[in-house]
Amino acid sequence: MSGVTEALERLCCPTAEVSAHYLISPFGQVFQLVDEERRAWHAGAGAWGACSDVNSRSIGVELANDGQTPFAAPQMDALEELLTGILQRWKIPPERVIAHADMAPDRKSDPGPRFDWRRLALVGLAVWPDGDNRTSPENACDFDLLARAFGYSQAAEPADILAAFRMRFRPWAGHELDAVDLAMIANLANRFPVDGPSDAV
Questions:
Q1: Catalytic: 81?
Q2: How confident is the model at residue 131 (pLDDT cuts 50, 70, 90)?
Q3: Residue 16, helix vs strand vs coil
Q4: How far apart are CA 59 and CA 62, in angstroms?
Q5: Architecture of the CATH domain 4-191
Q6: Which of the 8 DSSP states describes residue 130?
Q7: For 47, what's the count of Cα atoms within 13 Å in the CB-facing half-sphere?
Q8: Residue 174: pLDDT band with limits 50, 70, 90
Q9: Do residues 200 and 96 touch, judged by C-beta distance below 8 A?
């Protein structure tokens, strides 16, 4: 959308069949659109780990941003405060804070390359590879298996998974799978394996 007003109109339009629990403006205004106890329609079809219906097991937070512009400091501050409360209320671990691109890598790319996932990880609201890689994966098959162990859908195409992974952890990297990708996904899969249904935000 071109701005927060248009986004609010869209998310509140009954015929649009799209919604979210929260929308945060670039100025840090937080709009609650759906009660957290109720299902919103922010994610569409998608999966994470054993959860095949993310909409029914997640709290959707939308950020008013075009996907290419850096996210404003007041917006990120508001997001941190909001996420802190959500994770505490619902006992959601930081590894269950995911992007739309993570749960539907074949058709979603938000929040985009400018979103600061590392900032969230530094305050315990998301995860980031810590550089302590105890395994030595060697090829694309290893990446695919490890990415699915971390949470990416079994049904997703490997190329889509790599694109989503790169969008989140290495947005300015080249196109070909490399040793850094392998080391990072091994680290994440070893530390945060998905082994059952999970709530997400």
A1: no
A2: confident
A3: helix
A4: 10
A5: 3-Layer(aba) Sandwich (3.40)
A6: -
A7: 18
A8: confident
A9: yes
What are the tokens at 166?
């790169």
Q: Rounded to two decimals, what is the model's pTM?
A: 0.91
Q: Residues 135-145: what's their mean pLDDT?
A: 76
Going from N- to C-terminal start, the domains of the chain cover: 4-191
Residue in the structure block whose two tokens are 């009954």: 14
- The catalytic residue among 17, 36, 62, 176 is 62
Q: What are the φ and ψ backbone dihedral angles of 63, each rounded to 5 degrees?
A: -115, 130
Total number of residues shown for the chain: 201
| Mean pLDDT computed over every residue of the chain | 91
What tokens does 94 get?
Answer: 């930081």
168: which residues sit within 8 A by CB, 6+ positions away?
99, 101, 102, 115, 117
Q: For residues 58 and 199, is the Cβ–Cβ distance under 8 A?
A: yes
Which pLDDT band holds residue 197 (cuts at 50, 70, 90)?
Answer: very low
Which residues fall within 8 angstroms of residue 88, CB to CB, at 6 or more apart?
none
Q: What is the CA radius of gyration of the chain?
A: 16
- Residue 62 dihedral angles phi and psi, to the nearest 5°: -105, 140
Closest alpha carbon to 35 in 48, 17, 22: 22
Closest CA to 42 of 66, 70, 23: 23
